[in-house]
Amino acid sequence: MSLRALGAPRMLCHGPLHRIVRCAILIAEFCSYIGVDVMASRTIERILSEALELPEAERAELAHGLVASLDGPNDEAAAGAWDEEILRRMKELEAGTATTVNRDEFRRRIRERLSRI
Question: Backbone phi, then psi, for 10, in 5-degree steps?
Answer without folding.
Answer: -55, -40
